């Protein structure tokens, strides 16, 4: 049985900066891994989860972020040796692609690529769009409370990534031990 956790990158694995447009990094010097993230990823890994980062990066489409710079940021995450894959949607939301949440394309691609067990994956995000997308493919959404989701908070939220990891480990032990 292959089980996985999908983690939205921005605001969870890396820090956001309200001084930047859209708060997200566009340069590797702005890319700061969230303190304490390594230990939390290790807890998931030790429980047998594949860890897949998902990220919507429309800056690729609009020219505010180069693919080379994005890859340099992702090299930092991969250097932690706790991330198995990084799946990117490079399109603007109005391009109507199948990989931009709430469309489930990134999750479907990862499920096929990694031969994941149906109904045994979780998604952690601050955005309602990822929560909708993971539900389309039978996954379990875990939303972190954020100013980004205050108006569209349709599912219960957790306070932070640590609580999200605790919930996943609890559900894993309760349902599949």
Q: In the CATH hierarchy, what is the superfamily?
A: HAD superfamily/HAD-like
Q: Treating each run of at least 4 consecutive H or I residues as one helix, how many helices?
A: 6
| Class per helix and strand makeup | alpha/beta
Question: Main β-sheet, in a few words?
Answer: 6 strands, parallel
* Spatial order of strands in the largest sheet: 3-2-1-4-5-6
State the total count of DSSP E strands: 6
Q: What is the beta-strand fraction?
A: 15-25%
Q: Any low-confidence stretches, pLDDT <50, length ≥5? A: none
User: In the CATH scheme, what's the topology name?
Assistant: Rossmann fold
H/E element order: EHEHHEHEHEEH
Percent helix among the residues?
25-40%
Distance between the termini: 12 Å
Apparent shape: globular
Name the average pLDDT: 89
